[in-house]
Structure formats: structure tokens, C-alpha cells
Amino acid sequence: MSSSNLVIANWKMNKTWEEATEFVDFFLDKSLDKPTIIAAPSLYLQGLHLRNKNPQISFAAQNLYFEEKGAFTGEISIPMLKSLSIGYVLIGHSERRQIFQESDELIAKKIAACLSHQIIPVFCFGEPLEIREKGQEIDYVLAQIKSGLALTQLNSFKQLVFAYEPIWAIGTGRTASKEQAQEMHLNIFNALTAEYPKLNPEEITILYGGSCNLDNAASLFSQPNINGGLIGGASLIAEQFLGLNQI
Ligand code: PEP
Description:
alpha/beta; 8-stranded parallel β-barrel; 247 residues
């Protein structure tokens, strides 16, 4: 996926139904340059999927539980998403890790479940500020990736999307420089090709996330190992998100 970028909007816990449909309707007649995924609140996924007529847009859940069904109040499962034709899900977002105490072990179970049911996880990871200040960010992130994939037998890099999101850059307005982001993405790319020598490296997709916006996206997306963006705040306004898509 190195040549064509992918952009994913992460709406988090934002937008009423009316606001969500207005956003999707804005894109009905827009031609988009890149495949575009909207991670919307799960309550809206079916409605938005049925309403959307833009072939470049698809939808993702922001979370799921790894079990297929049962007594897990408040959770949603992979078969539920698949029954609504939702093909993507964010896994391991730092807000899930920090606020909801999701562990590497739980994330590994979720990723393994996604892959065994052919749903594409957008696997998120990234270091906190104190780790970067100690210069340990590369080892930290590579260890997160290794544990996230520990229960998974990867057959192709098309089975998932990687998203590097330094925690100090998420929602802070402080983005990684293109050099910092590229250095991390290159290390991730090299680690993946070393760990999975039989898989096609051209199919690796590594997105950058963390205060990505119209001012900084062009320079970030032009880096050789940055294959697009996972975008929070700047994805909430349709015109801005369209601009990010056209970079
Ligand atoms: C995110 O939450 O995935 C994210 C990248 O947020 P923001 O763009 O607001 O930093």
C-alpha cells in the first residue's frame, strides 16, 4: 500500500446521529483520492453504511470484544459487525489502553479474533512522553507490536493496518515531526519485514496518527514509510477531512 494513502477518521465519542448523517451526506457527490474509512460510534454503523453511496468510503468500529457471543454486557462482537458488512475495527487505541485499562494480552486476543474472522484490525500503538524523553520509543513500540501479534499467524500484511500514534501527540496539537514519524515508521517496517520474511512488504500499511491536520499532513504523508493517517480532531469537520483526503 506504499503508493496510495489511506485515511481513517476516528470520531471517538462525538457526533449526534444528525451530525453523523450530515457528514456522510457531504461526501455523497465528492470524488475521493484515497480509500477512506470512518470509525464511527458503533450505534451508527449500520445506518451510516446503508446511507453511504460513496464507493471510496467504508466504516470501522472503534472497538470490539474477542468472544463471539455471550454474557458480555455492553460489548459488541465480530459476528455482529460482519452481519452489518463492517470490515474494519480500531484495536489498541491509546484511549482504550489508558482509560479502559486494555492490556497487551487483551489486544493480542482481539487482533487474533479479527484475523481469524477476516475483519481488518487497525492496530494502534505508540509511546507515552516519558518513554520518548528517555529515548526508548523504538524499543517500546516494537515490543507493543510484538505482543499485539503474539497470538496471530499472519499470512499477509493485507490482513491488518498498523497505526503509529505517539500518545503525547494525540489530541494535544503537538504532532511528531516528519523526521520523528518517518524514523519510527521505518523501524516498524524493517522489524515487520525481518519477522515475516515470506510476506510481501509492499502490502504493509503504516498510518501516522496524532494531531494530524491540514497544516502538517502533506509533509507527513510524503515520507516514504508513512502510508496515510489516522485522524481524530481534524476528521470531525467534513470540509477539513475532505482536504486531508486530497493531500
Ligand atoms: C486519534 O485519536 O486516533 C487521533 C489521532 O486523534 P487526534 O488527531 O485528535 O490527535
